[in-house]
Amino acid sequence: MLARRSTFEFVLRERTEARAGVRTVRGARVVGLITAPDDPCRVIGVHTADGRTWTADLVVDASGRRTDLSD
Questions:
Q1: Could you tell me if 55 and 43 are in contact, meaning their C-beta atoms sit under 8 angstroms apart?
Q2: In this predicted model, what pLDDT tens digit does every residue of 4-47 receive, in sequence order?
């Protein structure tokens, strides 16, 4: 399959947001991760720069190859 990345991301976002129970948060700057008490490698939420805390079944780091996640 050949497609522009922007087209692929648009279709993926559109299909994902059409599912019940899915919430997408855009433009939030993550400043910390929340990990499971019994498994520090399992991320269960994030802290954002505006002081919010978001918990989730799935957290996606979509910041690309320059992500700070490994830090």
A1: no
A2: 888 988 998 899 889 998 888 888 888 999 999 999 999 999 99
In degrees, to the nearest 5, what angle opens at C-alpha 14 toward C-alphas 9 and 17?
Answer: 120
pTM (predicted TM-score) = 0.69
Tell me the residue type at 10.
F
Rounded Cα–Cα distance for residues 9 and 5 (Å): 6
Tell me if 44 sits within 8 A of 35, measured CB to CB: yes
Q: Is residue 71 part of a domain?
A: no
Count of CB atoms within 10 A of residue 46's CB? Answer: 20
The residue segments making up the domain with residue 34 are 5-66
